[in-house]
Amino acid sequence: MGRQSLAEAATTAEQEARVQGGGISAWKLVWVALALTFLPPLIGIPIYLKWAAQVPAYTPPQSTWSPTPNGYDQFVAAGEKLDPDDRVQIITSLKPLRSKEVRRLLSTYHGALDQVRTGLRMECRVPFGSTYRRPHTVGHSFYALGRLLAAEGYVEAQQGHYAAAVRHYLDALRFGMAVRRGAGLFEIVDTELHALDGLLLIADRLEPALAGSLLRDLRKLEKEFTSSAEAVLDEKELGTDRLRKLLLQSDPLKLMAEWTSGRPEEVTDVHRWKLRLTPRPRVLSHWRAYMDELAARRRLPFHERKSMPQVPPDPVNQLLLPSAIIGSEFENWDFRDAQMAILETRLAVRLYRHEKGREPSTLKALVPRYLPEIPADPFAPKPLVYRREGPRTLIYSRGPDGDDNGGKPYTPGTGQKTDGDVARSWMPLP
């Protein structure tokens, strides 16, 4: 077929198309089809991206408000009195605190510790969001102040002044509780562990009246303990506020990487595009749903807890959640509860021995005069282990593996399958 024949055929086809299409050419139909195919995405994608970038408003719940005056302000002011070198020494070096150096530190920072005690007489709650804004040195100062309070108790106990030692250890315990009230997962429970460990060291040496007074104080304080589930819910609100502010920035993933891992170079353009395509309300709802599920699991007894919830798929929570949760040291919360149960039981046994002239045959004999109920083992669905071995009375928890290993000390940080029982903290006292 020649060129003229092709042209004639095309003209004929166009005329037929006009007749069949009511005067619309085939090329116009093609253009209309192309427009219907590509124009909606070209218009819709920018609209979607603009909508996805909208960060919803957030108002913290009233339960997160801080009191006025706030004992927390006294704690911060006390921490500012610590010399940076002394602060590092108190936190990292235990040997000097067993020598005359402890007296120098206690003498030097007597005023700071008095200011802490002033704060303890006030209502206290960490101001909402301050854990994200404050310098890291504030948290380090709190840890050092807690160690110094426990060191006061240790010095008094070494001199046989057990009433004074109990008073200082209780101050350390209250301080550890106070600096975590409203702090979410930022403040770990080490200060409380130090205080309880010190009290366990002297529990069997206390006069009955002092032991009874301490037992009553501990039972009152136990009701004020912040549970790990409560800390997770605090962190949910703190994290929502923090996430919202980060998502308003031009490159939130880079800022999060700097904050969590210190390696912003790991954030690529692929991550940024994933975030652009993820609606900001979904990121926040993922965070809140994860923390709700985590809190629900933390409310369960230790032996019934499942593994950690699955991290949501959006790039923000994939980056943020592992850092926020790994740093929380959940294991220590269970050790704190175990130590408290052991300490209260030992004090109750001492009171029973003083009144009856003999050891109780079982823990049931302590109820209800000395304890309101048989003390449960936080790590197992059973009471604490209590038995006599010659002149010794053994009281301990079965530890994370849930088995009775005969009082063999537990070594932390090696997973839930590690053998060993908990009678005292593994943390050395100053």
Provide an overview of this structure.
Helix content is 58%, strand content 2%. The protein has helices at residues 3-20, 26-52, 71-79, 84-92, 101-108, 110-120, 130-133, 136-158, 162-178, 190-202, 208-222, 228-247, 252-260, 269-276, 280-299, 315-326, 330-356, and strands at 385-389, 392-396. It has a two-stranded antiparallel ribbon with strand order 1-2. Strand 1 (385-389) and strand 2 (392-396) form a beta hairpin. The longest helix is centred in the first third of the chain and has 27 residues, at 26-52. It starts with a helix and ends in a 34-residue tail after the last strand.
Topology (elements, then pairings):
Elements: H1 3-20, H2 26-52, H3 71-79, H4 84-92, H5 101-108, H6 110-120, H7 130-133, H8 136-158, H9 162-178, H10 190-202, H11 208-222, H12 228-247, H13 252-260, H14 269-276, H15 280-299, H16 315-326, H17 330-356, E1 385-389, E2 392-396
Antiparallel strand pairs: 1-2
Helix pairs in contact: 3-6, 3-8, 4-8, 5-8, 8-9, 8-10, 9-10, 10-17, 11-17, 12-15, 13-16
